[in-house]
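Two proteins follow. First one:
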Amino acid sequence: MTRSQAHTIVATYLGWSLDAFDFFLITFVLIAISKTFGVALVVVTLSITLTLSMRFVGSLFFGPIGDKYGRKITMVISLVFLAFFDTLVAFSPTITVFLILRALYGFGMGGEWGSGFALAMESLPAKARGWVSGLIQGGYPTGYLLAAIVYLFIYPRYGWRPMFYFAALPAIAVIYIMLTTKESPVYNEFKKNASFKQTFRTIGKHWKLFVYLSILLVGMNFVSHSTQDLYPTFLEHQLHFSPTYVASIAIAYNAAAIIGGIISGIISQNTRLGRRWSAISFLIVGIAISPIWAFPEIFGRSSLIYMAFLAPVIMQFIVQGAWAMPGVYMNERSPAEARATIPGVAYMVGVMVASTASTIEVLVSSMFHDNYSYSMLLLVLIVFPLTAIMWFLGKESKNAKLDVAPA
């Protein structure tokens, strides 16, 4: 691997990590924000839905730009946009302004993943794609882990608003990308003929692939958001753990998630499982452990403090293991002329639909006297099997050529 390729890996990992960091800041302080503005918790969880829905709109805007003007510059613009608006969240005077700013942040977030992953996958040798996909997608739990650290040290002393001062951190990724990263060689091959017309013509030609990937990513995003977004609230509100212990658990299960993604990527590249069966295998294990994850007191109250730590660690290892696959899989199956658009938009279609996960869990829990365990387990037992079926219905993509198709 060349130095330039190594810089590309670091840049895309850093960009996605800090992008996710900005997103997950809110998940630790939903209750605190609801008290600040005097609104119900479900109103604050609406901000998650708005953020994730606007990611879809952002992908529609930034995806074609990435295919026409390049992966690198698109990633930079989207990072600057999202960092600016999420930092302003710290100064929100009302719940309305708060919701608008988080929506605008989501718009910028919608452009980073598609361009970043295309840049990485197109710049690397085929043998490196599996573990690099797991590493880069591991930027998501890395961001979650960083958010947990900020929550641990900032929230108990200063409250939730100063936490969002750190939302400006993606500027670090922007500086690094501009100084060290080269444009994708695949994009350079077709950039003279790149146009919005060409991008949309390519999407139209591969519409069945786009529909399949969108449905697959609806399932995958439900897999992650159903197990992540409300879990800190579950630990704090239902299990009555302190902010320090909640943050410690979140740090641990996100560290496990990073490891799970890399291991899964290596398995998919170096065994007969490939992309599809690696994802399916991890999802099946997730189904098996889900009762312990949702009911950590299942072995008795005396074991609660240990199981509430261990169960989410195992679950997020599994979830990220499955999530190591979509990035490399979608890029290996998508044509170069629309590679920043098809995977990016398909991902954000899934994000938009799955953005309802936390709201669904809050509403369903009200049917069980505000017991989140039942609603979280129910959602997992629905979406994990359905997503495994979608992976089974797809085609294997391992080591596909990513160069430009002949004219």
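Second one, unrelated to the first:
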Amino acid sequence: MTATELLTLAVTLGTALVLVSVTFLVARARGKYDTVDTVWGLGFALIAVLSFLITGTGLVAGVMTVLWGLRLAVHLHRRNRNKPEDPRYAAMSQRYGSRPAARMYTRVYLTQALLMWFVSLPVQLTGSEVGVFTALGAVVWAVGLFFETVGDAQLRRFRNDPASRGGVLTTGLWRYTRHPNYFGDACVWWGLYLVSCQQWPGPLTVLSPLVMTWLLARGTGKPLLEERLRQRHPEYARYVARTSGFLPWPPRRS
């Protein structure tokens, strides 16, 4: 690994830590820990920009990351504004008991900074060469962005429709996977990894998309959300029984 690459990793790690620390102070002032959700996408975009400015390489991966990060930040900001605290963060705060703010900072915010930095390693270590892996990665990334954008738009329309209140979205992309946005997120990062594979040491960053995929499918993404939906919507169990949990697939017959 070159001195420039090491410098990039050090600068981006420090930036991620400072960013989430400032975000934590803003969240405390607002009384809403879900502020970090908006900054999640912005953090990846900032890391991509810094990486390009330091190394002068990885323009394609950088642009792809910025587009993805800005879209996600805008979407989550629109979703969370003018609403009470996200139930996930409220439950965490209650569970931490004494000194919940300090534990929220160390266990949630700092953890997100480290994940932000680690998952974005393919972007930080992408070279300047463009070839087959670049094209293949761009296609996978585009598929992921499509699933995220369309899935989020379909869910937003469903929630804004008074006739759908209390129901479960089972049409559109949601007919084929219970989490088109999570599946799309995973595709985005596998696409960025493929772009980095065009040049060494990109292939070594394979753990980054693996970690992101695990978080979405088995970690803090899908399981926590589905548990909450099961409690709020009794019919959700029937939806789960016939619909793929992650990968898009035709629904099973009743």
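SUMMARY FIELD: The longest helix spans residues 132-160. Residues 204 and 244 are 31 Å apart (CA to CA).
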